[in-house]
Amino acid sequence: MTQIILNVENASLIPSLKKILGAIEGVTISKPKKRSYRVDPYEISPSGDSFFADSRNVKAVEEDIAKAHQPGAKFTRLENKEDITEFINSL
Length: 91
Known about the structure:
The protein has 91 residues and is mainly α. The protein has 3 helices and no strands. The chain is 36% helix and 0% strand. It is elongated, with a radius of gyration of 24 Å. The protein starts with 13 loop residues before the first helix and ends with a helix.
């Protein structure tokens, strides 16, 4: 089976296109599958934090970690309550 994807800018053409393509033998029209971003958060977070249940969030965190490891990257490490308080007060 060969698939063709059509990107239609003018949505008013879609009903006509469906009629034309539906009349051709052997051609079927289907809606695209919705992409799921759901992942098991326990694979990343011991607490199962729901933030990590979305693969887009995981990807963003991984990209930020990679940026922080680049030469010359600047980041702030907050290790205790005093560090956090000092950082917030500096904003």
